[in-house]
Specification:
The complex is a heterodimer of chains A (about 475) and B (about 220).
Chain A (H helix, E strand, L loop, with lengths): L5 H9 E4 L4 E5 L2 E4 L5 H10 L9 E3 L9 H5 L8 H17 L2 E2 L10 H7 L8 E4 L13 E4 L2 H10 L1 E5 L2 E8 L8 H12 L7 E6 L1 H4 L3 H9 L8 E3 L4 H7 L8 H11 L12 E6 L6 E3 L7 E3 L13 H14 L14 E4 L7 H11 L10 E4 L4 H9 L2 H8 L2 E2 L20 E4 L14 E4 L2 H10 L5 H4 L3
Parallel strand pairs in A: 3-4, 3-6, 4-5, 6-7, 9-10, 9-12, 10-11, 15-16, 15-18, 16-17, 18-19
Antiparallel strand pairs in A: 1-2, 2-8, 13-14
Helix pairs in contact in A: 2-6, 7-9, 13-15, 13-16
Chain B lengths: L5 E8 L7 H4 L19 H4 L31 E3 L12 H9 L3 E4 L4 H8 L4 E4 L2 H13 L4 E5 L4 E4 L4 E3 L4 H9 L3 H6 L2 H14 L7 H4 L3
Parallel strand pairs in B: 1-2, 2-3, 3-4
Antiparallel strand pairs in B: 1-5, 5-6, 6-7
Bound molecules: iron/sulfur cluster.
The site of iron/sulfur cluster (SF4) has 13 residues of chain A, from loops.
């Protein structure tokens, strides 16, 4: 019999029963909750007179709607100017209290973006099944978990039953061989993968990321890669457990300790795909060929290396794709054939669950240290992913580096990644953003997003247009 | 949940691939803590010429006359015809809620994003995957005939055109059963409560490290 993939192993260990057709009932170890996709789920519980199956399996925090300036944050709920947003955050507080769910509230020093605080608290542990009413739940797969984004009805279902009805996906392996060039990061790897397989390339699959270049990444880098698995169409992405994973987790609040840790580690180290496991599809990439990436369109697959040009729609054979490219260029106000380096920027956003962890901030700080943000940049902001990331960055003096260079230093939250709070990109403005989606209107009405790594965003802040961060230090 | 059995209605075409959830319902409307009322903001950024907010009076807003939703021939449509990878992006269930609230009951496309596809079934909507060429033909037919309708029959798993052409489609048995009977999925799962409890007890025994509460150990 052929071996099992990592996905097969976690699936099998959580399979309660096969229901009907392809659908199975699987056990869920952890649910993360935020204010946007949970109110209707709690309301559903209340209406049906149900209680959470296991309240302590849940961890909640508000992140999408909350303000990121310190004056507003200091005012607590009152600081949320938009009354509709305020009600949503208040509702999360009330629901967590009513149903006995542990919440890191808006001004708790450990609050942050759900996908940043899960791993940071050790609430994300290898071999777990994890869900959240948020598509970027795939992030947690970086620690060898099976993590799905789910809808609100499913949030309610998991609250009430601790199970999810789910169809087993197919297995895809994306193997990134060799070594990255200096200045090329996890973000560039995942953008290059999406550029290659497309935004629907992973639909129906769970993607395992492997190969030398993935193994060489830190856990934070791995999170950046898994975070964007959904942008390739895969509901879940994951990476095998190794010493790097264990080193990251040891000593975190929710992680086991002492004898329990030793026992867990024995089990966790088996969380790798067997050598003879069969994948339904394998994609090979060469890390050495990957350059820093920049998206030029309105879908993450519309991406080019920084040394490249915006492609010509006319050269695209598929009429549907050609139409999309034309639409995208029109929306972005860009011309086919233009050099990526000639794209001028108005705004810089360093943050989001893709790239707002301490290593991301260190990389960005290194690039801007001792320099000044270009005059044409109207707004440059750094939004740490959690209160703990913020505190760590401040202890290292990174906040001072950013401020001295002319970037704003904000409080943790989702911020301009999706602009549900007051942090919005203006119409027609171009933003170099370390987030994960460049859809129309994502960062603000008619705003134009270019997805890049933190180092590339930082270099663009200084130059006012895109530059190759590998050369920018010599500029 | 509302039952779904058959649906005959006007078809509205949205000729664009990779329609994402931000396109279906922009984020400023996700701040609501209710499940209803999203229909007037379906496709908001394309349907209106200005930017809407949750408290805007939509009847006063300038509409985009070129957008399909605003064209007379597609009024009261209940079947949405779409292109590849419909519903990609976020997991927000506000997307199917908005379609449902507007009156859409069936979505036909060559492919859907996984989470959106799932979310539809939870809300009494039927997403149907058809071969790309068939979808293209339907786009042509809708374009050519004002008031073009289709008849969707879930028990028989067929779509019938006005000319009597029958197009079969497939659907997962469990999901079909749920839609036909308007099942409360949580209630159904809870019939297995004993099985879940047994599984959980066994799992706790094998993997106790997943069951300790960090809330206590961190003093929070
Ligand atoms: S940072 Fe952006 S992508 Fe991540 S959870 Fe928040 S809104 Fe979603």
């Amino acid at each position: 019999m052929a071996g099992q993939t990592l996905y097969d192993k976690i699936w099998e260990s959580h399979l309660i029963k096969q229901v009907e057709g392809d659908t199975a009932l699987i056990y869920i170890d952890r649910q993360l909750i935020h204010e946007v996709t949970s109110p209707q789920a709690f309301e559903g519980l209340r209406l049906a007179g149900r209680k959470p199956w296991r309240a302590d399996a849940n961890l909640a925090t508000p992140d999408h709607n909350i303000p990121t300036t310190s004056q507003e944050r200091r005012m607590g709920l009152e600081g949320i100017k938009d009354p509709v947003s305020r009600i949503q955050v208040q509702t999360l507080d009330d629901n967590c209290k009513e149903f006995g769910i542990f919440e890191l509230g808006m001004n708790d020093p450990r609050q942050g973006i759900v996908h940043v605080i899960g791993p940071e608290q050790g609430a994300t542990l290898p071999g777990m099944t994890i869900v959240c009413g948020d598509s970027h739940t795939s992030t947690h797969g970086a620690l060898g978990t099976l993590s799905h984004g789910i809808g609100t009805s499913e949030v309610e279902h998991v609250l009430a039953t601790q199970c999810l009805l789910q169809k087993k996906m197919k297995n895809m392996l994306v193997r990134v061989n060799g070594q990255l060039q200096e200045g090329v990061t996890a973000k560039d790897i995942v953008l290059a993968i999406i550029g290659k397989i497309g935004t629907a390339g992973g639909t129906g699959y769970t993607i395992e990321f492997g190969g030398e270049a993935i193994k060489a990444l830190s856990v934070e880098g791995r999170m950046t890669v898994c975070n964007m698995a959904i942008e390739a169409g895969a509901r879940a992405g994951l990476i095998a457990v190794d010493e790097t994973t264990l080193d990251y987790l040891k000593g975190r609040p929710f992680a086991p300790a002492g004898e329990m840790w030793n026992r867990a580690v024995q089990v966790w180290l088996q969380l790798v795909s067997d050598d003879d496991a069969i994948f339904d599809q394998v994609v090979e990439m060469s890390a050495g060929d990957i350059e820093p990436q920049v998206t030029w369109g309105t879908s993450p697959e519309m991406v080019a290396p920084v040394s490249g040009r915006i492609p010509y729609p006319a050269a695209e054979k598929d009429p549907g794709k050609r139409g999309n490219m034309e639409q995208a260029l029109k929306y972005m106000g860009l011309e086919a054939g233009m050099e990526i380096k000639d794209i001028h920027l108005d705004c810089i956003f360093i943050g989001s669950c893709t790239n707002s962890r301490i290593e991301d901030l260190r990389e960005a700080a290194k690039v801007v240290a001792g320099k000044k943000v270009a005059d044409e940049i109207e707004l440059a902001m750094v939004v740490p992913g959690s209160g703990l990331v913020k505190a760590q960055a401040e202890a290292e003096g990174l906040d001072q580096v950013f401020k001295a260079a002319g970037l704003q230093w904000r409080e943790p939250g989702c911020s301009m990644c999706l602009a549900m709070n007051a942090d919005q990109l203006g119409p027609g403005k171009h933003c170099a953003s370390t987030s994960n989606r460049n859809f129309e209107g994502r960062q603000g009405f008619r705003g134009r997003t270019h997805l890049v790594s933190p180092a590339m965003a930082a270099a663009a802040a200084i130059a006012g247009h895109f530059v190759d961060v590998r050369q920018s230090s010599q500029d | 949940m509302r039952k779904f059995n058959t649906q005959e209605g006007v078809v509205i075409p949205l000729d664009r691939a990779n329609v994402d959830t931000d396109y279906i319902i922009p984020k400023q409307f996700l701040k609501s803590i209710k499940r209803t009322g999203f229909g007037v903001n379906l496709f908001d950024e394309h349907r209106y010429l200005d930017r809407g907010e949750p408290d805007t009076d939509n009847s006063q807003r300038p509409v985009n006359p070129d957008f399909v939703l605003n064209q007379l021939r597609y009024q009261n449509a209940t079947i949405l015809l779409a292109r590849e990878n419909f519903g990609c992006g976020s997991s927000r269930e506000h997307a199917p809620w908005a379609l449902d609230d507007y009156g859409i009951r069936v979505i036909i496309a060559p492919s859907f994003a996984d989470i959106f596809f799932n979310n539809c079934f939870k809300n009494g909507l039927l997403p149907i995957v058809l071969n790309k060429d068939i979808v293209s033909k339907l786009f042509d037919a809708v374009e050519a005939n004002v008031g073009y309708t289709l008849a969707v029959n879930l028990p028989a798993q067929t779509i019938t055109t006005v000319d009597g052409e029958v197009i079969p489609f497939t659907v997962d048995e469990y999901k079909k059963h749920g839609l036909l009977n308007g099942l409360d999925e949580i209630g159904v799962t809870l019939q297995d409560a004993q099985t879940i409890e047994n599984f959980e007890a066994d799992w706790r025994e094998k993997s106790p490290w997943y069951f300790s509460s960090g809330a206590e150990s961190s003093g929070g």
